[in-house]
Each structure stands twice: as structure tokens, then as C-alpha cells.
Amino acid sequence: TGAFNILLSLLEYLSNLHVNEFFIGVTTFAIACLVPNKLRKIVPSFLWALILGSLIALISGRLGWIAPVRQIGNIPMAMPLPYWPAFELGLLPLLLKDAITLAVLGSIDALLTSLIANKMTHSQDDADQELTGQGIGNIVSGLFHGLPGAGATINTVINIRSGGRSMLSGISCALILLLILLGGG
Fold it and tell me: Distance of CA 30 to CAs 39, 173, 183, Å?
């Protein structure tokens, strides 16, 4: 019955399909797949797809070619304010179990990313420093409504292949993301 219910829900989604949004989605996916290798070396294909898909949606909506695409929520225009999370002591065992699970998975991912970066750059990192930085970052992120994160292997590989060799490359990536958060909304 599980597969049958999935098919029924798929039919329900298809009956509520917005053709203009489907067109933008398919076009954006096609752009990501068809970006020539020369352009992919400059900017990743999914960034091309995001930029060009957004422009197509904006321009075609403004020109009246398609109905405006619905937005999913508001895009934040500022840094979120920090807050102290509230929880009940009765939930502490469940929270600890989930926190330990996320910490172990995030640690494994960060160490794997570090290992790959070390092999690519023929260098050696301090695993304790890597995990301490990740832990501090995740705590601070949580205080600002953020999600826990770990080393993103694909971002690290792209960074190294693009010539990034120092902490400045990671810092510049973080600053660009901050500018997008503050000014791109």
C-alpha cells in the first residue's frame, strides 16, 4: 500500500502543477546540465543555472510571458538576532542522543573532507583543530537559528582546484556568502 499511496500523492501533485514554475524548474535544470566545460571552469554549472534561471523567471514574469513565480517565504535581508534556545529537561535524553548522532556524522564528514584536502595539497592538518573549529561554528550557528554543518567536500575540492591554498580562500567564501545574505535579498 505504500507504493500505491506514493503514486496517489504524485498524481495529486501533478494535478496542482503550476506550468510556469515547472517550466522555470526544467529550464534551470537544463542550464545546469548544458553549461559548456569552459564556463564550468570559471563558475560551477549550478551557479550558472541559479543565476540564469532566476533572470529568466524575473524577466519573463515582468514581460508577462508567464505568470509570476511564487516565492517560498521571505528572503532575509539582515543577520538574524541571537537567541538562547528553550527546552524542557525531560527532553534532554532525546536531545543528547540526536546531538551526539549529528556530532559524530559531522565529525566523520569533516575529517573525510580534511583527508581529501590533505591528499590534494600534499599537506597535513590538525584533526583536533578541525573538529574544535567545527564544534564552535555549530554552537554559534545554533544561537542564530542556523543548522549544524560539516566540511563540504565538493566545495573544498572546487576551492583547491581553483587555486585556493590558504585560509584566505575560505574566509573570502564566507564573506561572499555574508554579502549575498545582507545584500542579495
Answer: 15, 26, 28
What is the spatial distance between Cα 36 and Cα 49, in angstroms, rounded to a whole number?
A: 12
pTM beyond cutoff 0.85: no
Half-sphere exposure of 154 (CA within 13 A, CB side): 2
C-alpha to C-alpha distance for 40 and 68, rounded to whole angstroms: 29
Q: Is pLDDT above 90 for 30?
A: yes
Distance CA 134, CA 8 (A): 42
Q: Do residues 182 and 77 make contact, with C-beta atoms less than 8 angstroms apart? A: yes
24-50 exposure pattern, b = at least 16 Cβ within 10 A, e = fewer: beebbeebbeebeeeeeeeebbbebbe
Residues 35-86 have pLDDT tens digits of 888 888 788 888 889 888 888 888 887 777 777 777 777 767 777 788 888 8
Calpha distance 10→12 (Å, rounded): 5
Cell numbers 564550468 correspond to 40
Read off the pLDDT of residues 93-108 as tens digits, 9 standing for 90 and up.
888 998 899 889 989 9
Helix boundaries (H) for the chain: 2-15, 19-34, 37-42, 45-62, 92-121, 127-143, 153-161, 167-183
What cell numbers appear for 166 in the block?
590558504
Tell me which residue of 65, 62, 50 sits closest to 20, measured CA to CA: 65
Separation CA 53–CA 26 (nearest Å)? 9
